[in-house]
Design goal:
The relative contact order is 0.14. By secondary structure, the chain is an alpha/beta fold. The protein contains 17 helices and ten strands. It folds into two domains: 273 residues, Type I PLP-dependent aspartate aminotransferase-like (Major domain) (Aspartate Aminotransferase, domain 2, 3-Layer(aba) Sandwich); 96 residues, Aspartate Aminotransferase, domain 1 (Alpha-Beta Complex), CATH 3.90.1150.10. The chain starts with a helix and ends with a helix. The longest helix has 25 residues.
């Protein structure tokens, strides 16, 4: 479709998304290019369209030295290009995997090359110079590259935690109150780097606040660590469903970025998903814009990785396997909490995900301490200068080794 045709669909089905589009988002549309012309020729007797080296019958002339590593795949077409939107069966399977309640508006997900790529597409479509991106600090440092370095959008921050050591809804509210035009709000739960996820009353307050905001608002749920919850009192799921149901689609759009990276423990697969809070043709229009930008960057996402994720989603044992990983992470989480308590160290609140953030005493520098721990204690952690803190990725440490890790940190803090 042309941009004008896509905009007509958005005007009818989700005018808020149309108001939020960046200049690139406005231009984005799929031309009648090579992939589309090739798809139209799918049933042709002699198909000489797309530049894939095949046997003439649609199967790749795969080199045996490479193809043998994919021998478990259903057929060798897994070594061919995938559509820009992603494999259709995988998009449908992930939509079912989300298990959204009836009535929650949602497009069919677009397959993206990992969480970072999904966030980058949101930046491309809905931000740019002069469009603030609101995020609690400390935040994942890659947001600087995604939103400011690439898209030129300014990050506007507020303290992630309130004085009562819970999520700072009042700080978010005060930041929103200063806006007089379009903006983006980033919500990352469970958080990287804090390892915090909200409780039900916090979620209700966030949803009320964002739903009442009077200006155009793109709300991005960075759900990279979704499903990694260890406290039964937590809200325990993505905020996407509650937000997508509550906001007014004449001025707000919710985007959900998630994937197989953490949920399926498939870090190197680089398979993520981007879902928009728009149904029907409006959702298809937004998916086409995302796919158009995707084609102009990575072209398409790895077909072997998509095939692997699709196979996993159909496995009868997937839920049990995921539960087993959660059990391992929960044991490490409790081991770290216990070890910190026994040593008299207090981290910022953490209850989920993969991380804990240890704030350093006044007078100690996070980067200097990181280097000291590495040199003197053979301990690797991440310095978070904005919080003068050290990020501990307990997800990558055996539970039995965590007391020694904390002991070494105590010795380094000396």
């Amino acid at each position: 479709m042309t941009p004008a045709e896509l905009h007509s669909l958005l005007q009818d089905g989700h005018p808020g998304a149309l108001r939020l589009l960046s200049p690139l988002g406005n231009r984005a549309a799929m031309p009648l290019g090579i992939p589309q012309q090739s798809e139209q020729a799918r049933g042709a007797l002699r198909k000489a369209t797309i530049g894939q080296i095949t046997d003439g019958a649609g199967r790749p002339l795969a080199l045996p030295s490479l193809a043998r590593y994919y021998s478990g795949f259903p057929d060798t077409t897994s070594l061919l290009y995938a559509p820009q939107y992603g494999l259709a069966p995988l998009r449908d399977a992930w939509r079912r995997h989300l298990a959204l309640p009836e009535g929650v508006p949602a497009s069919v997900p677009v397959v993206v090359s990992g969480i970072t790529h999904g966030l980058s597409l949101c930046a491309d479509l809905f931000t740019g110079p002069g469009v603030p991106v609101i995020v609690g600090t400390p935040y994942w440092d890659n947001y600087d590259q995604i939103f400011t370095m690439r898209a030129g959008a300014p990050l506007v921050t507020y303290p992630f935690f309130a004085p009562d050591r819970r999520f700072n809804v009042a700080g978010l509210a005060a930041t929103l109150a200063r806006l007089d035009g379009p903006a983006m709000v980033l919500l990352n739960f469970p958080s990287n780097p804090t390892g915090y996820a909200p409780f039900p009353d916090e979620v209700a307050a966030i949803v009320r606040l964002l739903a009442a905001h009077p200006h155009p608002l793109c709300i991005v749920c960075d759900d990279a660590y979704n499903t990694l919850y260890f406290d039964t009192e937590l809200y325990g799921k993505s905020l996407y469903g509650a937000l997508a149901t509550a906001v007014d689609n004449t001025r707000a759009l919710v985007c959900k970025v998630d994937g197989a990276t953490k949920e399926l423990v498939f870090f190197g697969g680089r398979v993520g998903f981007l879902t928009f809070s728009a149904n029907g043709t409006a959702g298809q229009a937004l998916a086409e814009k995302a796919a158009a930008v995707l084609r102009g960057t990575v072209s398409s996402v790895s077909t072997p990785s998509q095939t692997a994720v699709l196979g996993a989603l159909s496995s009868a044992t997937l839920a049990a396997e995921h539960a087993a990983v959660i059990g391992v992470l929960a044991a490490r989480y409790h081991a770290l909490r216990d070890a910190l308590g026994q040593r008299g160290l207090e981290a910022l609140p953490f209850n989920s995900g993969c991380f804990a953030l240890l704030r350093l005493p006044d007078g100690q520098n996070a980067e200097a301490m990181r280097q000291r721990l590495l040199k003197e204690q053979s301990v690797g952690v991440i310095a978070v200068p904005s919080a003068n803190a050290l990020r501990i990725a307990y997800c990558s440490i055996e539970a039995a080794d965590i007391p020694d890790l904390v002991a070494r940190i105590v010795a380094g803090l000396g």
